[in-house]
Design goal:
By secondary structure, the protein is an all-beta fold. It has one helix and 25 strands.
Amino acid sequence: MNKNFYYDPQKQGYDSAVWQTIAGVPAVAANHLVLNAATTISHADIYSGEITMNVTCPVAPVAAQSKRFGLAQLNLGAFVGFRITEDKFYYESVDPNGINTAVEIPWVAAWTAAAVTFKIVWNNHNVEFWIGTEKIAILNWSNTSFSGLNTHFPLSIYVMNANADDLKVKYIEVRNADMFFPANHISATISAGDIEIGAVELKNGADDTRAIINAANTARANTNPVVLSQIIDAAGLVNTVSANIIPPSTLLAGETIVAVSGTAVALGASLATKSIYIRAKLSNTGDVFVGDSTVDKTTSRQIVLSPDDSISIDIANRASMFVDAAVGGEGVDYLCMS
């Protein structure tokens, strides 16, 4: 079954359950995954699918530049993606036998220090390279140089910057992927049966008074301290009522239409919410793009919804959400919960 995956550094941070550091210190700053003389690779094994990466290259290709982003299998040296070497920019495929096919792409000045969407679509027949909404190239696996890459060969998301500058990744989206996450990088599994805990102490923060967990079926004396859970606010005070545990009580439906493609519009006027369910209209002929006020159909796509796709977002105000569309006059339906 095909899987979808979305990595948002602002929400997920640099999560060791998703990433393995290869070199340097990858970090999350200003809502981006930032690699400064650093390299990282995902734990996921991807056998085919569509991988979109929103990347900001800080400078145009010049002497001593070395950057790569795409899909890799490090032990065999295989790679499919984009590469900057010295003053050249390439799309590239390196098969497990080390056969390299790299084709230079003329660098566009508008890509420098700007968020640009790079996409790789690959399967057992071919691989496509996209920049923004333009398909740069398509390579057929039937060519001898690509014979080692097919749906049975796993690659992982890979970002490398050998230079002491900030290569930034705003988001990574994987769609319709034949993908596998090793179990030890998803969650811990507890098998059925009894769990025994020994030598556990709970004590007062101000002194050494300890709470007592009695032996089986024995009564607790009135003088024994009691373990009690309470809701605490940011100041350390006990809340009698917490807004966080009150479910939504009001629903409000609406629609948002993008009159001019490329000009994002707010989902609606200011309205306090707990969460919003958003669905791209079934009648749309193109994608819509959901995110913050910078969302844009070309350079800042953020969350991409094809016709009839949907997403639910926990957010405090409807006016904080914005929508752009690939086609003017198209948009989304939504349901606010407050």
